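Why does this matter for the project? Reviewers at the last site visit asked to see concrete outputs rather than summary tables. In response, this paragraph embeds two records directly. Each consists of the residue sequence and, immediately after it, the corresponding structure tokens. Nothing has been edited or filtered.
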Amino acid sequence: MARMPDAERLDRYADLALHVGVNVREGQRLVLRSPIEAAPLARRIAAAAYRAGVPYVDVQWSDDAVTHARFHYAPDGTFEELPLGRADALARAAERGDAFVTLDARDPDLLADVDPARVALVEAAAQRAQRPFTRLLMADAVPWTILAVPTSAWARKVFPERTEAEGLAALWRAVFTATRVDEDDPVAAWQRHVEVLARRAAGLNASRFAALRFRGPGTDLRVGLADGHAWQGGATRTPSGQVFVPNLPTEEVFTAPHRAAVCGTVRASMPLAYAGRVIEDFGLTFEAGRVVSAHAQKGEDVLMRLLDTDEGARRLGEVALVPSGGPVQQAGVLFYKTLFDENAAIHLALGQGYRFTLRGGTQLDDGDARAHGLNESLAHVDFMIGHGDMDVLGVDDAGGEHAVMRAGRFVS
């Protein structure tokens, strides 16, 4: 079990999960998904939830060691086996209106020595089975949030030159910096931050750009925006009005690209941890919205399997703007975890688009959402494309270009 920080800061982190992340309501059930390494934090979240009036906390444990053993030793032909009834139970819990907190403590290199074909089978089977549940989450039908828990394995990846104890302590400090836990009042700090993101999204919505153009080292990319796109940032809300923050941390404002209107080249600015492997130094070329070529210095086989998940995995489902100099970047580390690294840099996502990034999108059926340009896929994988070296231009309906970001900073 990974050594945890002091009780006060763990309690602050738990409070963020409950009162900022999902903003849990009295009488609302909570589904808490946690690896066993994160048990000390999971127990604090559960206790705080009961104190807040949650009638039942459904804790669903996982174990990286067992996951690793399956990929090494399970018989061929069994990698599409799934836990009996779990996907249906998640969908029913979401339909009932439960809140969902997920703790992420996975080692970025957990599956580095595993056959990627086996990983791809498991990922695809889980994505298919959980599609009804995932659709509810991506439509903001229920409150959900994800936050990370440092472990020794993760710390070794981030701080390979340090002792285990030193690395773990340093990683906890970086996580607390990135999530504002060390502010005098973390919940109040998050409320102020969410207001800043909301104002930024409102400004972009008022501009009504037809496309964005990205220019930086190795990148010259035009991303058309979906018809009726809506910029989002920070907090969102369920149909019943429950405000929540899906990712802790979050520094982005984001919207829906048009699935058929992306062209040019883009180079990733940071490694991508995906499916237990790390993809490094990679680039993509788009034509008519689709990736037509891809390469990577490391992990190219994993990248290609991601792109081959389905037809939509070669198209974009999200475009997100993140300014340089935020808390995640101030933490001063490469986290090798997308939850954090995407909030240090401008990023894009391959795969599924979010319905709520269209005006009135949660009320649209599949055909209407697709007609607006929203992408469909079993995948949704963010990758980072810029720091302080990226310029972003907004393109209006007449083709005029307007500065949105210069050298990684918003112009206003």
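We now turn to the second protein, recorded in exactly the same manner.
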Amino acid sequence: MHSFSYLRVVDASGALAVDPEHAAFIAGGTCLVDLMRLGVMTPDSVVDLTALPYRDIVLNEQGASIGALVKNSTLADHPMIVARYPALAQALAAGASPQLRNMASLGGNLMQRTRCSYFRNDFPRCNKQRPGSGCAALDGENRRHAVLGGSDHCIAVHPSDMCVALVAYEAVVHTVGKRGERSIPIGEFHLVPGEHPEKETALEPGELVTRVSLPAEPFFARASYVKVRDRASYDFALTSVAAALDVKGDTIKSARVALGGVGTKPWRSLEAESALVGKSSTTASFTAAANAAFAAARPQKDNAYKVELGRRTLVRALEEAART
């Protein structure tokens, strides 16, 4: 492992004072430590954030405010999160192992990096690692890669479960940086690769996530998260869906749909949502929405199965949300 210095800060100003070009923030370390062991990330300094005060969970009539250092297990088990934002609790419970959930933080999960084997093995042709070197996955093994949001420069899939639910719930990410505080809608936080796969989030160098807020929508309680994976324990999604429905009588008034395991970032499907509004809450309507969600999919040689699997996952998530 690359040698590094360790710094534990006690306030945001201490974190912002470090050199962002050569430092990495650490909370639970469930992603960073892995990548450092692999030699994929080689910071000269590791900045420990665990003494910062971002550990509160506040729920009121405006919605929810969740500190960036809240553990995934704590958030998943919070009774008001389970009641008001069930897809978020379900997504967190579906991620990793209990031991990792006890360590992983909300902020770290937001910053989780791809599980692409070419990226994680520091492959010579990886535009995330070496901009301009190419994307080995395009003509290599790409069974787990994205069918939505890819480009000729990268098709790496985003791995987070939690972020899929946050997208469905229209979360806002709050940050602090050298230029002050910002509020970033979750849909703008993660970036599609385009010509610059090395740029993964809207964060500026050294900017720190402090909390995430969720709006108060009564129908957000009528929601579900469904995850399909190769094995039931500790595996990343092949496809996943977070869905919420506002149903009056038998008519869908509003819907939120986000997809995981299929996009280069947590993928909100406005196409599926539009297809649902005004329709009856039936399997036929859900199937039409699923077709709309994947109409623009660009599968590769090994992952075309994700299109049909993704459609079926979406129908099941909508059916479960409708029964809530």
